[in-house]
Amino acid sequence: MKLNKDIYRLSVLFIIGLFTLSSCGDDRSNEAKELQEVQQWIYKTMEEHYLWNDEIPPREKLNFFEEPKTFFGKLLSKNDGNENGPYSYIENKNDIPSTRGIPQTEYSYGISFAYVTIKDITGEFALVQYISKDKNSPAYKTNLKRGDLISEIDGEKINNKNITKLLGDGEIQIKTSKISGSSIIPEKTINLEAARKIDENPVYIVKKLIENKVGYLMYNQFERGKNNDPEDTTYDDALKQAIRELQGVEDLILDLRYNNGGYVTSAELLISLIGPRSILGTKIGYMKSNKGEETSLEAKDHGINLDLKRLYVITSGTTASASELIINCLRTDIPIHVIGLTTTGKNVGSNGFVFKKQPNWVIHPITMQIYNKKGQSDYKDGFNPGIYESGKPNLTKENYIIKEKLPLGDIGNPETERLLQHTLRIMGYSLDGASTRTTDTQDIKTYQIKEIDNSANRRRANNFIFD
């Protein structure tokens, strides 16, 4: 079956903590059939759609009485995912509340955070990367801000279990701390209202810099519209408006450091809005299924276009999927300068399947690989900081490598924000009045949150195939 590209979401998804439940093996045919119903559906769906379906174990080597999440995990290829776990995942909507952080907006406090330690400082922390701009989000109503170090939740020091509360919970009390020399001292006590659905426009910042010569766009999710409605285009319309506001710039800095992916159609839209005008109306890439079927990616004329001659992209280790698609597909036509840290390396995409008889069960297998129009899909290990240009070897550049350090600085502010400062200097602009913060920065190390159930940090696909 050939799948319409609109159902695909490309986002970095880590499957963590698969667990096992015992099941009864009574030799009664009707009961046995019922106990295997979900597993049989999983196997059939994976057989047909999974990108690496030729690596699925044969039926006789599997236990169809195993709990569905365990069963699903045993079907996955070693090529599926990275060191943080497989990209494919399964969820049971009845078991796990939809706990989400930004940009997982169904149930959230409105906090984007990283789980970190700090060099020479004892303890673990949740580092606030940014706060939702939705005025009804719990975090927006407080004095929590970017760069704050959350050190306690409900009186307990941050650890890899209680940090999951920040993805969404009831009313909680958090405490922040600040660094003084080599010590950490208490700073603020904040009461957060219960998590709720929030409206988070992925166009987080749009502005012109350097006498209107340089555009800056922080775009945090390839999301088409509100409320996980695939027909809603509110956010795509906001992206178009952002590009209208940037008309006339000579260059664009696209900040994707917190963008882990989303809709293919939104990625096509962004390429169409910022890429060279010559690509409009042409094929920019394609997605290939396990059957070799190809679905084209296209640049369309939306009446707005920056006609860029090059692109500067700020990245991190969580820049993934649709974000990487932008780099991969545009590098065939213009030089792409990747500045920051190596991206995730997700050159594949997935879609969701719902079990019609028990719609609480949803699987999201990897179903296709992504290529640019020249057939390149060579970024499984991520895009290293450097320059990517058609017809030339990929050029890794040491001076393009830069990580976030404390204090973070204000996003979009070239006077205080290190990654933006660094990018502008690479572009050749002098920032004599900017603070470089070279004497007071603190190294931070980011960790994957290991104790989150595979459903708890998941973005649900907005379109499913019911089978």
Structure report:
The longest helix has 13 residues. Strand 13 and strand 14 form a beta hairpin. The protein has seven helices and 24 strands. The chain has 467 residues and is of the alpha+beta class. About 7% of the residues have low confidence. Helices cover 14% and strands 27% of the residues.
Summarize this, please?
With 467 residues, this protein is α+β, with helices and mostly antiparallel strands. Helices cover 14% and strands 27% of the residues.
Structural class: alpha+beta
Count, helices: 7
Main beta sheet strand tally, sense and closure:
7 strands, antiparallel
Number of strands: 24
Average pLDDT, to the nearest integer?
88
Low-confidence stretches: 13-26, 96-101, 450-464
- The termini sit apart by 12 Å
Assign an overall shape. Answer: globular
- The fraction of residues in strands falls at 25-35%
Radius of gyration: 23 Å
What secondary-structure arrangement, pairings included, does this model have?
Elements: E1 9-11, H1 29-35, H2 37-49, H3 68-73, E2 89-92, E3 111-118, E4 121-131, E5 149-153, E6 156-157, E7 172-180, E8 183-192, E9 203-209, E10 214-219, H4 234-245, E11 251-255, E12 261-263, H5 264-274, E13 283-289, E14 294-298, E15 311-315, H6 322-330, E16 336-340, E17 348-350, E18 352-354, E19 361-364, E20 366-372, E21 386-388, E22 395-396, H7 418-426, E23 444-447, E24 464-466
Parallel strand pairs: 10-11, 11-15, 15-16, 18-24
Antiparallel strand pairs: 1-12, 2-19, 3-4, 3-23, 4-5, 5-6, 5-7, 7-8, 9-10, 13-14, 13-20, 16-21, 17-20, 18-19, 21-22
